[in-house]
Specification:
The protein is mainly alpha-helical. It folds into 2 domains: 64 residues, no CATH class; 46 residues. The protein is built from 7 helices and no strands. α5 crosses α7. The longest helix has 22 residues. The termini are far apart. The model has no long low-confidence stretch (mean pLDDT 80).
Length: 115
Protein backbone atom coordinates (compact mmCIF):
# COMPACT_ATOMS: atom_id res chain seq x y z
CA UNK A 1 0.00 0.00 0.00
CA UNK A 2 2.84 2.41 0.82
CA UNK A 3 4.32 1.94 -2.65
CA UNK A 4 1.01 2.80 -4.31
CA UNK A 5 0.57 5.90 -2.16
CA UNK A 6 4.14 7.02 -2.92
CA UNK A 7 3.49 6.70 -6.67
CA UNK A 8 0.23 8.66 -6.44
CA UNK A 9 1.96 11.38 -4.40
CA UNK A 10 4.59 11.63 -7.14
CA UNK A 11 1.80 12.26 -9.66
CA UNK A 12 0.15 14.86 -7.41
CA UNK A 13 -3.39 16.05 -8.03
CA UNK A 14 -3.59 14.49 -11.52
CA UNK A 15 -2.82 11.16 -9.86
CA UNK A 16 -5.72 11.62 -7.47
CA UNK A 17 -8.03 12.51 -10.34
CA UNK A 18 -6.93 9.40 -12.24
CA UNK A 19 -7.43 7.27 -9.12
CA UNK A 20 -10.95 8.62 -8.72
CA UNK A 21 -11.75 8.08 -12.40
CA UNK A 22 -10.46 4.50 -12.24
CA UNK A 23 -12.51 3.78 -9.12
CA UNK A 24 -15.78 4.99 -10.66
CA UNK A 25 -15.20 3.42 -14.08
CA UNK A 26 -16.73 0.11 -13.04
CA UNK A 27 -13.81 -1.87 -14.44
CA UNK A 28 -10.72 -3.39 -12.86
CA UNK A 29 -7.04 -3.37 -13.75
CA UNK A 30 -5.83 -2.16 -17.12
CA UNK A 31 -9.37 -1.81 -18.45
CA UNK A 32 -10.15 0.70 -15.68
CA UNK A 33 -7.08 2.81 -16.49
CA UNK A 34 -7.77 2.66 -20.22
CA UNK A 35 -11.41 3.68 -19.69
CA UNK A 36 -10.45 6.57 -17.41
CA UNK A 37 -7.78 7.88 -19.80
CA UNK A 38 -10.12 7.57 -22.77
CA UNK A 39 -12.85 9.45 -20.89
CA UNK A 40 -10.51 12.35 -20.09
CA UNK A 41 -9.07 12.32 -23.61
CA UNK A 42 -12.43 13.02 -25.21
CA UNK A 43 -12.30 12.63 -28.98
CA UNK A 44 -8.55 11.95 -28.82
CA UNK A 45 -9.02 8.81 -26.72
CA UNK A 46 -6.44 7.40 -24.37
CA UNK A 47 -3.57 9.41 -25.88
CA UNK A 48 -5.57 12.59 -25.33
CA UNK A 49 -6.17 11.53 -21.71
CA UNK A 50 -2.45 11.15 -21.15
CA UNK A 51 -1.99 14.63 -22.62
CA UNK A 52 -4.71 16.06 -20.37
CA UNK A 53 -3.01 14.65 -17.28
CA UNK A 54 0.40 15.88 -18.41
CA UNK A 55 -0.92 19.36 -19.12
CA UNK A 56 -2.81 19.48 -15.84
CA UNK A 57 0.38 18.51 -13.99
CA UNK A 58 2.22 21.43 -15.63
CA UNK A 59 -0.59 23.89 -14.88
CA UNK A 60 -0.94 22.76 -11.27
CA UNK A 61 2.81 22.96 -10.79
CA UNK A 62 2.79 26.55 -12.04
CA UNK A 63 -0.19 27.44 -9.85
CA UNK A 64 1.46 26.02 -6.77
CA UNK A 65 4.73 27.81 -7.49
CA UNK A 66 3.48 31.26 -8.58
CA UNK A 67 -0.18 31.49 -7.60
CA UNK A 68 -3.27 31.93 -9.75
CA UNK A 69 -3.37 35.71 -9.63
CA UNK A 70 0.25 36.07 -10.75
CA UNK A 71 -0.20 33.72 -13.71
CA UNK A 72 -3.48 35.34 -14.70
CA UNK A 73 -1.93 38.83 -14.56
CA UNK A 74 0.95 37.72 -16.78
CA UNK A 75 -1.52 36.28 -19.28
CA UNK A 76 -3.20 39.69 -19.41
CA UNK A 77 0.17 41.34 -20.00
CA UNK A 78 0.87 38.98 -22.90
CA UNK A 79 -2.56 39.69 -24.39
CA UNK A 80 -1.72 43.39 -24.49
CA UNK A 81 1.72 42.69 -25.98
CA UNK A 82 -0.02 40.66 -28.69
CA UNK A 83 -2.06 43.69 -29.73
CA UNK A 84 -5.32 43.36 -27.80
CA UNK A 85 -6.83 46.65 -26.70
CA UNK A 86 -7.56 47.48 -23.07
CA UNK A 87 -11.27 47.32 -23.77
CA UNK A 88 -10.95 43.82 -25.23
CA UNK A 89 -8.93 42.67 -22.24
CA UNK A 90 -11.46 44.13 -19.76
CA UNK A 91 -14.21 42.33 -21.70
CA UNK A 92 -12.22 39.08 -21.52
CA UNK A 93 -11.83 39.50 -17.75
CA UNK A 94 -15.59 40.00 -17.42
CA UNK A 95 -16.28 36.83 -19.41
CA UNK A 96 -13.82 34.54 -17.57
CA UNK A 97 -15.41 31.97 -15.24
CA UNK A 98 -13.74 33.36 -12.10
CA UNK A 99 -15.06 34.97 -8.93
CA UNK A 100 -16.24 38.58 -8.90
CA UNK A 101 -13.58 39.48 -6.34
CA UNK A 102 -10.80 38.14 -8.59
CA UNK A 103 -12.30 40.02 -11.55
CA UNK A 104 -12.22 43.24 -9.51
CA UNK A 105 -8.62 42.60 -8.42
CA UNK A 106 -7.48 41.95 -11.98
CA UNK A 107 -9.26 44.99 -13.40
CA UNK A 108 -7.87 47.13 -10.58
CA UNK A 109 -4.35 45.85 -11.19
CA UNK A 110 -4.80 46.33 -14.92
CA UNK A 111 -5.84 49.98 -14.43
CA UNK A 112 -3.48 50.85 -11.55
CA UNK A 113 -0.26 49.59 -13.10
CA UNK A 114 -1.20 50.69 -16.58
CA UNK A 115 -0.67 47.17 -17.88
Amino acid sequence: MDKIVAKIVALGVPGLVLLLAVSISGYAGAAAITTALAAFGGPFGMIGGIGVFGLSALILNGLSEYGFESIFTNVLLELEKNGHTKEEIIRKIENYPISKSLKLKLKDKFKRYDI
